[in-house]
TrEMBL record, chain A:
Domain ABC transmembrane type-1 positions: 78-259
Compartmental location: Cell membrane; Membrane
Protein keywords: Membrane, Transmembrane, Transmembrane helix, Transport
Residues passing through the membrane, by range: 37-55, 84-104, 111-134, 140-158, 194-220, 240-259
Source organism (scientific name): Kribbella antibiotica
PROSITE patterns: ABC_TM1
Family: Belongs to the binding-protein-dependent transport system permease family.
Topology relative to the membrane: Multi-pass membrane protein
Record protein name field: ABC transporter permease
Any one GO biological process: transmembrane transport
From TrEMBL, chain B:
One GO cellular component term noted in the UniProt record for this chain: plasma membrane
Transmembrane segment boundaries: 20-40, 47-67, 73-91, 149-169, 181-202
Residue ranges occupied by any ABC transmembrane type-1 domain in the UniProt entry: 16-199
PANTHER family with a match to the protein in the record: GLYCINE BETAINE/L-PROLINE TRANSPORT SYSTEM PERMEASE PROTEIN PROW (PTHR30177), OSMOPROTECTANT IMPORT PERMEASE PROTEIN OSMW (PTHR30177:SF4)
Protein's name according to its UniProt entry: ABC transporter permease
InterPro entries: ABC_transp_perm/SBD, MetI-like, MetI-like_sf
Upper classification of the organism: Bacteria, Bacillati, Actinomycetota, Actinomycetes, Propionibacteriales
Length: 272, 213
């Protein structure tokens, strides 16, 4: 490839990559995402949600709309959505980070490109198809949705873990060895801390992917705010539909923001 | 499954064609929009950074939420899916176009100017050709993403293979549910691979000879 072609963006080929590039990795290259964005995003979300809440408390709704937009129901759907997001992300972390570490150890290093290629190929499948197929296979419900979300979100974390660990300057590892550190303490005290920013970028990408995809969980009765959108469409009740869309978007932006904050907080202090 | 495909091959081909044509048209439109916008903003680093931010935030919004927001405006059907797919397709291309144009060596622009080229000619003959591989990488990302979003848009009666997936969902338990969902999903994967190959080929043909491998 030529010099121009070698841009940091050429190797990205799929949805996760698009989001990784746009949302995660780009900011890992920047030194600081800028506090204005870090404050502006939750502020914007707060304004939107408050405006919506004011509208909701005053709007003239018919009985169906009232039932769908009941405060306790809304709270429950939001909690379900968060639960889907958090559980799926935690499982993804528990699998992808250790796997990524294992795939950068000398014994398994050669398998790394293979695993990433496989994960990449899986990403080409449309997520709605994945969800429906898994539901046909395993039945409707929460854990089927979790499985689909995990399959979908594992790639960014896995790849960023591998890339982050491979990006550690080998002379630093050498220096650690020279100081008499064991393999394990080289990993724990040099490699992982240095790779944390890249790994965190992958985790944030996974969070954003999961919170968006969890919207589709309602199709297989796994709950979440997507239910408002499908109900709104099915009953042609625009207030329900738009409320659902606004709340989902607000939640996604908020999760994205939480990921950004997490990225800032976990960045090792020596890395600036 | 083969029986299923054989029985419905006409419908399957038609929906595949619709899916592919929706994605190609939206991605083309998105490319024009995004490159135009990038050309417009790339000289000003602050606005360019803003474009990057908008691209990141936009991709955060779940596609199903955007579809929901669009229905009251565009109704149920093709218009909504075209707008949604184009919206998401624009973002990665915009980001890559901004990055690509910013990555053009300023000494090259300087020398183009020195040779007497105007701003437009510099753009068309130096900057865009040099940024093209990066822009094209964005187009490939867009194309694949659009394939998935177009499938979701079938829920609001957008055209394409997503309708097979949703048929599978509604007929769950029936004997053709699995066939329908599987055909829809694999069809989208196949179309995504075909389109990606076409884009790679287009990339070979449209990349300036000087920077080709």
């Amino acid at each position: 490839m030529t010099t121009v072609d070698r841009g940091p963006d050429t190797s990205r080929e799929n949805v996760a990559d698009a989001k990784a590039a746009a949302a995660g990795l780009a900011s890992s290259r920047k030194r600081r995402p800028g506090w204005r964005l870090l404050l502006g995003q939750p502020l914007f979300v707060a304004v939107v949600v408050i405006a919506w809440a004011i509208w909701r408390s005053q709007a003239d709704l018919d009985s169906i709309e009232k039932r769908q937009l009941d405060w306790t129901l809304l709270g429950r759907l939001t909690l379900e959505h968060l639960k889907l997001t958090v559980v799926a992300t935690v499982i993804v972390l528990a699998i992808a980070v250790p796997l990524g570490i294992a795939l950068t150890r000398p014994r398994l290093r050669r398998a790394a490109p293979l695993v990433v290629a496989f994960a990449n190929a899986g990403q080409a499948a449309p997520v709605i198809g994945l969800i429906v197929l898994l539901a046909i296979w395993l039945g409707f419900g929460f854990w089927t949705a979790i499985l689909a979300l995990c399959l979908y979100a594992i790639l960014p974390v896995l790849r960023n873990t591998i890339v982050g660990l491979q990006g550690v300057d080998p002379t630093l590892v050498e220096a650690g060895r020279g100081m008499g550190m064991s393999n394990r303490s080289v990993l724990g005290r040099i490699e992982l801390p240095l790779a944390v920013p890249v790994i965190m970028a992958g985790i944030r990408t996974a969070l954003v992917l999961v919170v968006g995809t969890a919207t589709l969980a309602t199709f297989i009765d796994a709950g979440g705010l997507g239910g408002l959108i499908t109900t709104g469409i099915r009953l042609l009740r625009y207030p329900v539909l738009i409320s659902g869309a606004i709340l989902v978007a607000a939640l996604a932006l908020l999760i994205d923001w939480a990921g950004r904050v997490l990225e800032e907080v976990t960045r090792p202090r020596g890395l600036e | 499954m083969w029986d299923y495909i054989a029985e419905r091959h006409a419908q399957l081909l038609y929906q595949s064609y619709q899916h592919l044509s929706l994605v190609i048209q939206c991605v083309l439109l998105a490319t024009v929009l995004a490159v135009g916008l990038a050309v417009f903003v790339h000289r000003n680093p602050r606005i360019a950074a803003l474009a990057g931010g908008v691209s990141a935030i936009g991709l955060t919004i779940p596609s199903f939420a955007l579809l929901g927001l669009l229905i009251p405006l565009a109704g149920i059907g093709t218009a909504t899916s075209v707008i949604a797919v184009t919206f998401y397709a624009t973002l990665p291309i915009l980001r890559n176009a901004v990055v690509g144009l910013a990555g053009v060596d300023s000494t090259l622009i300087e020398s183009a100017r020195g040779m007497g080229m105007g701003a437009v000619r510099t753009l068309l003959r130096v900057e865009l050709p040099l940024a093209w591989p990066v822009i094209l990488a964005g187009v490939r990302v867009s194309a694949q993403m659009s394939m998935g979003i177009a499938a979701i848009a079938a829920y609001v009666l957008g055209p394409g293979l997503g309708s097979f997936i949703f048929t599978g969902l509604t007929q769950i338990g029936g004997k053709n549910a699995l066939n329908s969902a599987l055909v829809g999903t694999l069809g989208v994967v196949l179309l995504a691979l075909i389109l990606d190959a076409l884009l790679l080929l287009a990339g070979r043909l449209t990349t300036s000879r000087g920077i080709r491998v």
